[in-house]
Amino acid sequence: MIDLEEILDIVDENDNVLGQKLRSEVEAKGLRYRAAEIIVLVDGKILIEKRAATKAKRPSHYSVVGETVKAVESYGHAAVRGVKEETNLAAMNPEQIGKTIINDKKEKDFYIMQVFVCEGKGKIKMQKEEVDEIKLLSLQEIEKLMNSGAKVTQALVECMKLYKQYKGAAK
């Protein structure tokens, strides 16, 4: 089987496509790309992943499901794909709840992040190459985790801010 390297859209700060590059070049040069982050709800709890210790960026950090958007792929498609690949769940009724820019200078990682919320249906099965652990937590438990000194991604922090705004607006 041939392992083809992903091609990503390179975007400006307004999310306009400037061109396409191989993922390795995007990562080496710290170019801005797109990612979808997905808050997956399972029986009223939020699914949190601990990124695999073998990941090049942010190993063993807690996060929501995240997926790099491939060239010409939509954020929504990447979100649904990521949930299936990383958790084996079907992403039911995904809804976009926000968009922000992540500038992680430490990891030289810059991306436009579109955030979704969905219901996860099916039996959870971790993708071992990507995920070391999955937890189902309440929003309060996630906030406690983020304040505990545990390693968490900037994306998790931003997603929880957007989720709280979404929940407040939904009342």
Write the layout of secondary structure elements.
Layout: E1 7-11, E2 17-22, H1 23-29, E3 32-42, E4 45-51, E5 62-63, E6 65-68, H2 75-87, E7 90-104, E8 109-121, E9 131-137, H3 139-146, H4 154-170
Parallel strand pairs: 3-8
Antiparallel strand pairs: 1-2, 3-4, 3-6, 4-5, 4-9, 7-8
3D architecture notes:
By secondary structure, this protein is α+β, with helices and mostly antiparallel strands. Helices cover about 25% and strands about 40% of the residues. It has helices spanning about 25-30, 75-85, 140-145, 155-170, and strands spanning about 5-10, 15-20, 30-40, 45-50, 60-65, 65-70, 90-105, 110-120, 130-135. The strands form 2 sheets. Strands 3, 4, 5, 6, 7, 8 and 9 form a 7-stranded mixed β-sheet that branches. A two-stranded antiparallel sheet has the order 1-2. The mean pLDDT is about 95.
Describe, in short, the structure shown.
The chain has helices spanning 23-29, 75-87, 139-146, 154-170; strands spanning 7-11, 17-22, 32-42, 45-51, 62-63, 65-68, 90-104, 109-121, 131-137.
